[in-house]
# Entry
Amino acid sequence: MGKCKRVDILNKAIVCAGDLRYAVTLHIRDLTPPDNVDFGVTFTTSKVVRAAVQITNPVSKVDDTNVNDLNTHTFYVRYDPEIDNAYMVEWDSTYYTVNSIEELDFRKNFLKLVCSEDVNPDCLTEFISCRLIPLDKGDTKEGKPGVRRIGVGEVLRRLIGKLIRGIIKEDIIAAAGPLHDTEAIVLVDAENAFNDLNRKVALQSIKQLCPPFSQYLFNTYQRPDKMVIADYTKHNYIFSNEGCTQGDVTAMAIHTLGIRPLIDNLGEAVDHEK
# Structure
C-alpha cells in the first residue's frame, strides 16, 4: 500500500488500515413515497465497512459571531467509488448525514466522510405540528370540492425558519440557478404543486444543491407533520406526508430547489431540440 495522507486523527500523524477500528453501516435512503404516514427513514441499500471515527466540534462565524458548525463527526473508510452524498452513516445506533466527501490521496486508498448527527424525529413532533387552515379552491377537474391546505406552524418554528433562511439566503439563491438568458416561458400544469411535491426526492435534491439548507429541512420534514383543526369543543388532525407545508416560511425555497432538477431537464431538452 502506498503512503497514507498525513492527518491529525487518533493521536497519530497518519491514517492507515489499522486505524479502521469501528464497524459502521452505510445506507442509501429510499426515495419512494411511503404507503402510510407512520414512516421514518427507510433504506434500499446497506453495507457494513470498517472506519476510523473522529468527533469534531468546529466553530464558524456568521456576522462576526461564533456559531456551531453542522459537522459533528468525520469517518475515514476504505475507498469505494459508489459512496456519495446519498449515503447515511450508522454508528453506535446513531445516524449521520454525509455532508462532504474527500479522497485522501491520489492512489484512492481512503475516503474522508464529513458528517453531521441526525436529530431523533420523535423529539420534534410538537415542533413540526401546525394549525390547519383549509381554504376553498372551488371544484376540481373531476367536479369534487377542492381544498388548499395551509399549515400555520408554531411561533418557534416560524422564527427559526426565518433565521435560517436569512443566514443562508445567498446559498439558496445560488442553488436556485440563474434566471437570466431566458428564451421562452413554458406553462406547466402544477395544480396543488406545493402539496404534491415528492418530499423524499426533494430533500435528496436539496442535499446536493444546497447542503447548508438540507440539515434543517431533513430534521423538519423527515416525518409527517400533524395538521390540527379544532373548534371550541373538539379537535382532529390529518398528516401531511408529501410536499412542503404551505404556511412554512421555508416552503417557497423548498419548492424552488425541489423542482430545480426538473427545470434543468426541461432546459436540456429544449437545447437538444434546437
In short: The two ends are 51 Å apart (CA to CA). Helices lie at 125-128, 155-167, 169-176, 193-196, 199-209, 211-221, 251-258, 260-273. Confidence is low (pLDDT under 50) at residues 60-68. The longest strand covers residues 43-55.
